[in-house]
Hints:
Layout: H1 22-41, H2 49-78, H3 81-109, H4 115-161, H5 166-180, H6 184-202, E1 209-210, H7 211-229, E2 233-238, E3 247-248, H8 253-265, E4 272-281, E5 284-292, H9 306-319, E6 324-330, E7 333-341
Parallel strand pairs: 2-4
Antiparallel strand pairs: 1-3, 4-5, 5-7, 6-7
Helix pairs in contact: 1-2, 2-3, 3-4, 4-9, 5-6, 6-7, 7-8, 8-9
Amino acid sequence: xxxxxxxxxxxxxxxxxxxxxxxxxxxxxxxxxxxxxxxxxxxxxxxxxxxxxxxxxxxxxxxxxxxxxxxxxxxxxxxxxxxxxxxxxxxxxxxxxxxxxxxxxxxxxxxxxxxxxxxxxxxxxxxxxxxxxxxxxxxxxxxxxxxxxxxxxxxxxxxxxxxxxxxxxxxxxxxxxxxxxxxxxxxxxxxxxxxxxxxxxxxxxxxxxxxxxxxxxxxxxxxxxxxxxxxxxxxxxxxxxxxxxxxxxxxxxxxxxxxxxxxxxxxxxxxxxxxxxxxxxxxxxxxxxxxxxxxxxxxxxxxxxxxxxxxxxxxxxxxxxxxxxxxxxxxxxxxxxxxxxxxxxxxxxxxxxxx
Length: 355
């Protein structure tokens, strides 16, 4: 007689929720009391308050005892696989129901066990078995649904992360080709920078990386653009206020900087200054990328907004509604602001498994 606890399954792959949490205990108690109320209503004449009190005490012993054992045995049960875990959990619940119902029968009937005592124990085991089977089946189906959602999210993140604009690749290769004859060392450095970017874009296995690593990827990109654009590109960077251990989706800054270069610097004959800044506000990080808007450039076309939508969707997949990406044009400056929760690397690394 164990009521559903809606805490999510753990990172060990076990479909059982963590019954050690206060939320789970509260749900178990409330669910058990609802079950006791239903059992009272189906009694002839609607039962009585005395019966409700006794059946509530009995049900709570069963559900809390089952929850306590499943809390203690959760990790060992996870090693048995889904089927083994379900069968073992079912046996645990029936075992608790048997002990409690047997104790009640012994308490009320004394030393002798008559047909009424055995009937009580049998009915208790039947009810406990039906409810346990339904709840365990529900938890298993819920876990499978969660796995499918996480798998789809992971595939979507990989697809979004693998997108690098073709024009950036062509420009980078042309820049490297033009530099080989004049400065082979610099060309070698550019090849390494390009390799870092493509490694992060195509081969990145992590869903979240530390901000320090993301900053290095952004620096690799800006190094390539500085060489290509020369004095036309000026970058004003102020990210020192951000914690380096903060977790962020890979290639979050690079598409925003690329967008700013493509729409803010390249159309300008005299060049422009890009501003990259960040700050921490309580448990939230705020990152801003700003670039001037050349008056002769019309920011429309099929490709406009692709990078912003890409980053926005990956932030949503990683952090849900706790992250936002907003844009604003004011006084000839186009500004992109990203807000995301502050999560330390090493503590919330499990977030990169799909959330």
